[in-house]
Structure formats: C-alpha cells, structure tokens
Amino acid sequence: TPKSVSYICFIGAGYVGGSTAAVLANQCPHIQVTVVDKNAERTKAWQSENLPVAETGLLDIVKVPRDGLRPSQRKNLHFTTEVEESIQQAEIIIVSVNTPTKAVGTGSGYLLDSSVLEDVVMCIARSARSNKIVVEKSTVPVGTGETVRDILRNNAHTGVKFEVLSNPEFLAEGTAVQNLLQPDRVLIGCLETKSGFLAAETFASVYATWIPRERIITMNLFSSELSKLAANALLAQRISSINALSIICEATGADIQQVAKAVGSDSRIGPHMLRASFGFGGSCFKKDIRSLVYLCKCLHLDDVAAYWEAILNINEKQKSRSVARIVSRFNNNMNGKKIAILGFAFKENTGDTRESCAIDLVKGFLHEGASVSIYDPLVQESQIREDLGIDCAADGGLDNRLTICQSGEEACTGAHGVLVATNWDTFRSLDWDHVARVMTYPRIVFGSSACLDPNVLESMGFTVEIIGKKVW
Ligand code: UDX
Ligand code: UDX
Ligand code: ADP
Fold first, then answer.
1. With contact defined as beta carbons under 8 Å apart, do 229 and 288 qualify?
2. Which of 165, 124, 117 has the alpha carbon at shortest distance from 141?
3. What CATH number is given to the structural domain containing 389?
4. Is residue 409 situated within a structural domain?
C-alpha cells in the first residue's frame, strides 16, 4: 500500500510548476509544498500580490496556502531559491522547467531541449540522501524517462533509490485554474515494476484528494510521455482539418460554420476545437508537433513524419492565403493602403503572443507595402515590435507604416480594411457604426464568424469577408 505523502517539491516556478503547485497546496493542506526556482525575481513575484502568471482566480488559490488563510493558519506553500534543502526534505520532486525547441545543432527547430531538465535531475541525484520519487512534469522527448533514470542511478549516493514518473500537464492558458481543479484526466506514467507501480499509486493518492479516482490514469512511462505530444497533435490536427475544409468552402460556396456544426454533432467527432481561424498559435502546438515529427524521423518513419508535419503546413498556408485574399481585394496592390489588425495575442483573454497568427498576418501586409495599425487590449507595444522583429533604424521607412494604437477605433481610423486576428469580446462589442464612419472605402472587415456577424456589419456599409465563406 502507498504511504501517505507529507512533503512535495516543485523545481521550476513557471507557468506550469507555479500554477500546479498552488492548486495542489490549496487542495492538500496536509502536504507541505515547496516551489524552487533559480530565478530570485520570479520567486519573489510568487510571494507578492503580482504573480508572474496572469490566470483568472490564481491569486485567490495561491493566497490560502501561502499566507495561511485557513482556520488552522498553517502555511503549506513556499517559494524559494534553496534547491538542495528542498530536495532533501521532499518525498516527491516534480520537475517543471522549460524545455524549449533546440535552436542550434542536431535536431534544431524540432527537438525539445531537455538540457535544463537533465541539469536539475543531476542536482537531485547529488542532493538526495533518501529515496525519492522524481516526476517529469515538463513536456519532454519520448524516451527521456530512460535518460532521467540513468542520470539518477549513476550519480546517486549509496543506498539512495529513485523512482521516475511521468505526469504531463494539459492546462490551457486562461483556464489553468479550472483545468487543474477539474481536469478531464491526470496521467501518471511509471515503470512497470512493483516499485514503479507503488510510486505511481503513492503519487495518485495525492491527486485523489480532489480528483475522482477514475480520472487518474496510470500507464507506462513512454505511453505517458507520448500521450502529451499526441494530445496536442490531435487538437491541432482538428483545427488544421477544419481550416483545410474552410479553403474548400471559400472555393465552392459551402459555409465552414455550417459544416463544423454538421460534423461536430456526430458524437464520435464532437464539437470542440473545430472553429475555423487564421491558424492556431500558442507556445505548445507547433513545438510539440515538431517534437513528434523529429521522433518519427529518428525512427525512419518518413511518411508518418510527413503526416504530422502536414498539420503545420496547413497552418502556415492558412495565414498566407488570408493575406492574399485581402490583397486581391485591392487588385494586388497595397501601396498607400492601410490595414488595421485587431488583436495580437495568440488567443483571447491572454497577453501571450507566442506563435500568434497575427505576427505573420502583419508581416505579410507590411511585405505587400501596406500600412498596418495594431491594437490589442493586453499586449504591450514593445512586445509587438519585438515579435515583428522590426528594427526601425535598419528598415528605413517601415516604421512610418507601422502604428501601435490604444483602441480598436483608433486603429481603424483611416484604414481601408480591418482584420480581427484575435476573438476578443471587446471587438464583438466595438462601436462598429463609428468604425464605419472613420474607415475608408472599401471598408473591408475580415475575421471569423465566431466574432463577427456579417449581416449586421453589411447593413452598416462594410464589405465583410468571413473565414470559410465564399464572397459572391
Ligand atoms: C462509416 C461511418 O461510420 C458512417 O457514419 C458512414 O455513414 C459510412 O461509413 P462503416 O463503414 O459502416 O460506417 O463503419 P465504421 O464502423 O465507421 O468503420 C469503418 C472502418 O474503420 C472499419 O474497417 C473499422 O474496423 C475501422 N475502424 C473504426 C478503425 O480502424 N478504428 C476505429 O477506431 C474505428
Ligand atoms: C493548448 C492545449 O489546449 C492544452 O491542453 C495544452 O496543455 C497546451 O496547448 P493553449 O495553447 O493555451 O493550450 O490554447 P488553446 O485554447 O488550445 O488554443 C490554441 C490555439 O488554437 C489558439 O491560437 C486558438 O485561437 C486556436 N484555436 C482553438 C482555433 O483556431 N480553433 C479552435 O477551434 C480552437
Ligand atoms: P512552463 O511554461 O513549462 O512552466 P516556464 O519557462 O514558464 O515553463 O518556467 C520554467 C521555470 O523553470 C522558470 O521560472 C525557470 O527560471 C525555472 N528554472 C530553469 N532552470 C532551473 C533550475 N536549474 N533550477 C530551478 N529552476 C529552474
């Protein structure tokens, strides 16, 4: 039988580690939770009112265990830079450090860089004086569990034993707290040995404090590592599938919203992640698919690699053809034309711009010679400029063609066309009557039917272009 756990340590107080630790400590007052990060500034931020992660409801969740707000007054969530001591106290150590795509060398652009994770594992091996369960929470290349075991085994103090588990995270930005409180499922991968199963059971008993036992799924280590990549690949694949269908719709007169409703009503398909868009963005989908593609290539499965890579190709195509669609409306000449871009974040309700489709849309219009004005409710001007990689000194003249605005109305003033790149609620409720007055002919509005009502907009004098809908 698994023994009860009283100390857990997270290494890496990022988006995943910090949020997960907070919910765990909140739900398990009987467990002391320590979150270690080498970045002292970040550690401090977690101790303040201004968390480094902006998630709805997260501060309330953090405060209860961190500040001792329960009737018992016992604090059980701590943020620190003291890695060695935290490792020594903990029975379970959860590694949640960054694993970005490698930028140079073998596998660059595809392979996830697990060197930070390996450094941390080495540190665990050297610091631990008693048996530990080490959990991979970061998204890792499939097979990393084996590397982790090797490092631990070869660097352990005499008599100290480790069990390695995989426990990938599935939270989506903007809904992290809810995803952690009520996850669809929790995966725990373990070695299929007696001690492996026992470690998995021990860790499962922690989650079982607040998650129904049937939602906690144990499996082998590699299934768990692969499932993380597979889940993101399948979610992205649905979006690329619906976007690929949207091209057919635009060419034939079918309407992608109607098609999505029709196919999504089949209970075997289901209605989620079928919204046609300018393309998916975010820090995970592209990174994880590329990791999967790299794995396939290493296994010499070139046709399988091509299958997954096609998801990314369709996503790039969706962005370039969207630019082309608007450019064709101007007889393929954007000189002297102004396009407003509403929304720059990769999705609504976040200020995160990683892999946002808006970046490529803006670059496309600038390349065509258009002026572009951008507004996003959360994204800072400096971030937008950094993402676009625009060095004003080097790009003489370009800076005159790029304006970052303080409101949607301001961005649209004098514009010939407007693209709603992020489906923020505030764009739905924009004063479109006013926008029609301040824009210039032909007053094209382009976006998703999730955010725009073509009938209403057309009655105001706009020419409306909807993703996945033919314009007659
Ligand atoms: C299918 C559609 O399900 C149905 O809605 C449509 O109207 C006609 O085509 P059918 O061909 O009768 O129906 O069989 P289905 O049960 O969908 O299976 C098709 C094939 O896929 C079978 O060979 C089945 O063995 C295979 N299959 C199905 C899998 O390999 N894996 C699965 O998870 C499901
Ligand atoms: C995703 C997964 O959902 C999450 O489970 C995983 O842990 C991390 O990656 P996230 O990147 O936060 O989460 O965002 P998500 O809501 O999945 O959206 C990703 C992108 O797809 C966004 O750009 C979004 O606008 C786009 N999208 C989403 C569509 O274009 N159409 C849809 O139907 C849904
Ligand atoms: P994610 O989105 O996966 O949570 P982040 O990049 O937001 O990733 O967070 C990773 C965190 O891990 C960062 O706060 C970083 O400072 C921390 N980190 C990286 N290396 C170490 C290390 N060796 N020891 C402790 N923390 C580390």
1. yes
2. 117
3. 3.40.50.720
4. yes
DSSP-assigned beta bridge partners for residue 445: 418, 464
Q: For residue 397, is pLDDT > 70?
A: no
**C-alpha Rg value of the chain to the nearest Å:** 25
Domain that holds residue 358: 285-466
Edge-to-edge strand ranges of the sheet holding 186-190 = 77-80, 32-36, 7-11, 92-95, 132-136, 162-166, 186-190, 216-220
> Ligand 3 site: residues with CB under 6 angstroms?
11-17, 36-39, 42, 83, 96-98, 116, 119-120, 138
Q: What is the pLDDT of residues 65-103, one digit of tens each?
A: 999 999 988 999 999 999 999 999 999 999 999 999 999
**Sorting pLDDT into bands at 50, 70 and 90, what band is 394?**
low
166 in any annotated domain? yes
CA distance 284 to 372: 28
Pairing of strands 92-95, 132-136: parallel
Handedness of CA 347, 348, 350, 353 (dihedral sign): positive
- C-alpha to C-alpha distance for 125 and 161, rounded to whole angstroms: 10
- Interface ipTM > 0.90: yes
Give 96 Cα–ligand 3 centroid separation in angstroms: 7
C-alpha to C-alpha distance for 83 and 93, rounded to whole angstroms: 11
- How many domains, the chain? 2
Beta bridge partners of 218: 188
Name the closest-CA residue to atom 27, ligand 2.
280
In this structure, are 202 and 292 located in the same domain? no
Share of the chain above pLDDT 70, in %: 98
Q: How far is the CA of 262 from the centre of ligand 1 (A)?
A: 18
Please give the distance, rounded to the nearest whole angstrom, from the Cα atom of residue 60 to the centre of ligand 3.
23
Pocket test for ligand 2, best of 56, 167, 239, 318 (most atoms within 8 A of CB): 239
> Do both 414 and 298 map to the same domain?
yes
Q: What is the best residue among 228, 245, 273, 425 to mutate for testing ligand 2's pocket, by most ligand atoms within 8 Å of CB? A: 273
Q: Are 384 and 359 in contact (CB under 8 A)?
A: no
pLDDT of residue 256: 97
